[in-house]
Amino acid sequence: MFEALPASAPDAILALMTEFRADERPNKMDLGVGVYKDSKGQTAIMRAVKLAEKKLYDEQNTKNYVGPAGDQVFCGFIRELILGQDYDQTRARSVQTPGGSGALRVLSDMLHSVSPDATTWVPDPTWPNHIPMLTAAHHKLERYRYYDSANNKVDFDGMMASLSNAKEGDVLLLHGCCHNPTGSDMSLDQWQAVADLVNKHKIIPFVDMAYQGFGVGLEEDAAGLRLLVNNVPELVIAASCSKNLALYRDRVGSAIVIGANASAADLAQSRLTTTVRANYSMPPDHGAALTAMIFKDDSLKAIWMEELNEMRTRMQRLRREFADALRKRSNSDKFDFIAEQRGMFSRLPLTKEHIDRLRDESAIYIVGDGRLNVAGLPDDGLDDLAEKIVAVMSD
Ligand SMILES: Cc1ncc(COP(=O)(O)O)c(C=O)c1O
């Protein structure tokens, strides 16, 4: 039976990782993959996580199932992280999921079961995996304009024009902060305009929050989403702890539902739990247990916040220094947007030919759409990198 299967198209980013690993040139540089790297190029385990792991080893006395909704202490901490300390607890419910992807998938399944004829509006561009994930959950997709690549900013007029076609019951996928792949986020006024549009068209926002703490700060990065929560009757949120706790492989995330009132929230939570049970039954516990342990302990939480702060300020500094280096080499301000954007990604205005040449001639790996992982930039060597980029662009 399997012989007749058509081969699956390879995932572009995973294929790039494989190519990078196989490259034997000593000076190779990975600017492609979507994980945080420190100045030594390592995706290290965070200090607070290491300490929590020791504590968990000593204190954990069972590996019994956690149940489909997972650990509600963990879920409460994540709700507070995302929605703020004073959020309206009557309207919010959540389950623990295997990473942000697990949350995206169970929320997609749950929304489809509630509203099977809805169209889901997806930003163009977006994280590539949104498309297969929503498609696998039987969503009908439409793209909305999000990015103005000529001016390197959110194409808000284009976005509003696309979304004027949204119908009652449709789903609107939004990135909570640090948009992947562009690094361009909406202003708070724009979030307010989105809230007004959501209410006018009676659509439901589906917010993907994968990079909280990587942009401006933990609170600032959630401000747009919180504005939405306070201004629309219902929405869903997929939260990931992969990046801000560097727990990638432990698969830690949460699916949050906000209802118009407590009974609507309870019904949504119950549908979510049934969806989980039918998918993977129950989430993995280890990473969520570590996260809860960190959030429960003031000193561990302070250590985590300090390290997250170091990571963020390092990315902000690299953005500024790289934009400076490119300004000097190109004698123009056309790369200044890199310093203004947020999070781990920006998109360089490179063609496929530029990207191929950077890889073949200089062992510099960048994703095919020009997406650059700012955390992969070399602390020493930004001038050299800027020179190589400007050289391929001007040939
Ligand atoms: C925008 C976005 N959403 C969700 C995810 C999924 O994160 P996780 O590893 O927690 O599944 C990613 C991961 O790269 C992402 O970039």
Quick recap:
The protein is of the alpha/beta class and 395 residues long.
Structure description:
The protein is of the alpha/beta class. It has two domains: 10-45 and 301-394, Aspartate Aminotransferase, domain 1, CATH 3.90.1150.10; 65-296, 3-Layer(aba) Sandwich (Aspartate Aminotransferase, domain 2), CATH 3.40.640. Helices cover 47% and strands 14% of the residues. The chain has 15 helices and 13 strands. It has helices spanning 12-22, 47-59, 72-83, 99-114, 130-136, 156-163, 188-201, 218-221, 223-231, 262-279, 286-296, 298-330, 337-340, 352-362, 382-394, and strands spanning 29-30, 92-97, 119-124, 140-145, 147-148, 153-154, 171-175, 204-209, 235-240, 253-258, 345-347, 364-365, 371-373. The strands form four sheets. The protein has a seven-stranded mixed sheet with strand order 2-10-9-8-7-3-4, with helices on both faces. A two-stranded parallel ribbon has the order 1-12. Strands 5-6 form a two-stranded antiparallel sheet. α2 packs across α11. The chain is globular. The mean pLDDT is 96. Bound molecules: pyridoxal-5'-phosphate. Residues 34, 99-101, 127, 175, 180, 208, 210, 240, 242, 248, 253 line the site of pyridoxal-5'-phosphate. Pyridoxal-5'-phosphate binds at residues 34, 99-101, 127, 175, 180, 208, 210, 240, 242, 248, 253.
Tally of helical segments: 15
Oligomer category:
single chain
CATH architecture of the largest domain: 3-Layer(aba) Sandwich
Backbone structural class? alpha/beta
Q: What are the segments in which pLDDT stays under 50 over at least 5 consecutive residues?
A: none
Sheet with the most strands: spatial strand order: 2-10-9-8-7-3-4
CATH class of the largest domain: Alpha Beta
Number of domains: 2
End-to-end separation:
50 Å
Order of helices and strands: HEHHEHEHEEEHEHEHHEEHHHHEHEEH
* CATH T-level fold name of the largest domain: Aspartate Aminotransferase, domain 2
Ligands and ions found? pyridoxal-5'-phosphate
Quote the beta fraction: 5-15%
Mean pLDDT across every amino acid position? 96
Helix content: 40-55%
Tell me the name of the CATH homologous superfamily of the largest domain.
Type I PLP-dependent aspartate aminotransferase-like (Major domain)
| Gyration radius from CA atoms, angstroms | 21 Å
The coarse silhouette is: globular
